[in-house]
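sorry to bug you again but im stuck and you know this stuff better than me. what follows is a protein written twice so to speak, once as letters and once as C-alpha cells for the fold. mainly i need to know what kind of three dimensional shape the backbone takes. anything you notice is useful, everything is just below:
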Amino acid sequence: MKRIKKKFVSVLLLGILITATMLTGCSKEDIPENAAGITDTEGLETDGTTQDAGEALGWEPIPTSEPLEESGEEATPEEEIRDGMYRSELTNEWIDESLRDQRPIAVMVDNESTALPHYGVNSADVVYELMNSTANGRITRLMVIVKDWANIEQLGSVRSTRPTNFLLAAEWNAILCHDGGPFYNDEYIAKPYTNNLSGGFARFSNGKATEFTEYITAQSYTNPTKGKTYPGLVQRIEESGYSKTYNEYYPGTHFQFAAGELDLSEEADAQPATEIAFPFPHNSSKLSYNASAGEYEYYEYGKAHTDPLDGDAVTGFKNVIIQSCSFTQYDENGYLIYHVVGSGDEGYYLTNGQAIPITWSKEDETAVTVYRNRATGEEIELNTGKTYIVLVPSDTWGELVIQ
C-alpha cells in the first residue's frame, strides 16, 4: 500500500492553520506562543520548507501508530528504460534493441586440452558442460549459447555434437552449429524443430591437427596461409533459409531474473559454495568463487580457463546450475544420450558464494528446463549475468564436491 509520510501530515496541518489565520484576519501577534515562547520564524534556520518552519515554531506532527493509507493500490518501482536497449532474455543484461527477436546459436566447442585456448567463449551468454563420451575419462564438451552472433570474431574450436545437444538447443530455439557426429544424431536432425549447420566453418592455421582448427566467424574468413576463403555465419544462415528470428518452436523465455541482487544465504537450506569440483576425470573441471568479482571462475586441466579474445580474462559466471541427470550409453564407443526430458530431484543453484538445492523438469523436447527451489517448490530466480549449466551423470552424483 502507498503510505503518506509524517512529513506530509505536518505540512497539511500547517497549511490548514495558515489558511485559517488568513480567513479570520489574524496577525502574527495573534498566533499563540508555543512552549518555547517562539512566535516568529524570522532568524530560524530552516531549509525553506513548510514543515521545517513548523518544526522551528515547536509544532509537533500528530503521532500515529500506523502510517496513513493514501490509496488501495500497491506501489511498484518504475521499470528502467534505456533508449535503443532492452534486457536480454538470456542474461537480463542491457543489449541492443535490434537483437530482441533474434534467435541465438548453440555452438559445440571441443573441450580436449589440445583445443585450448578457446576463443570467444567469454562472449557466450550461457555455457553448458556435459559428458561427451563415457570413454576417455568421461571427456566433456561445451555447448555455448550466443545471442549476438553477428559480431563473432572467432569462436571455438568447433567439434561434433551428440543427440542431447539437439534437445538442449531446442530450449533456446537456437541454431546448432557443429561439425558432424555419430549416426545417432540423424533422428534429431530430422526433427521439425531442428535447425543446424554442420561443418564448413573457417579453418585457422594454428599449428594443430585439422580437427582442432575450425572456428565460427560471423563474416567470411580468408586463411592467409592457405589462401582459402570460408563463408561466415551470417552468410551461412542466410543461405540456409533458416529464420533469423524466433520461430513457431520458440518455447518462450528460459529464466526468471530477480529485480535486485539475490542473497541465497537468507534461504533456510542454503550452504556455502565457493569451491566446486565436478566428477569428470579427464579434464577435472571445477569452479572457484571470486568474491571481488562476484563470479564463479572456471578451471580445467589444473589451470584457469582464459579467452585470448577477452584479454586472456578468466571465464566467469554469475549463476551456476548443477543438474543430476541419468543417461543411456549407445555402444562401446561411449556415445550416449542424457535423459533431459523428464524430471529430477537432485540439483543446485549457486550465486554469490551460496547454494540451494533445486529440482528440475522438462516436459518435452522443445520445452525449457524449469528449475525450482526444492524446499518451496517455486521456480528459482537468477541474478543478472551469465550462467553455467553442468549436467552431472547421476551415477557419479555422489562424487560432486561443493564446499
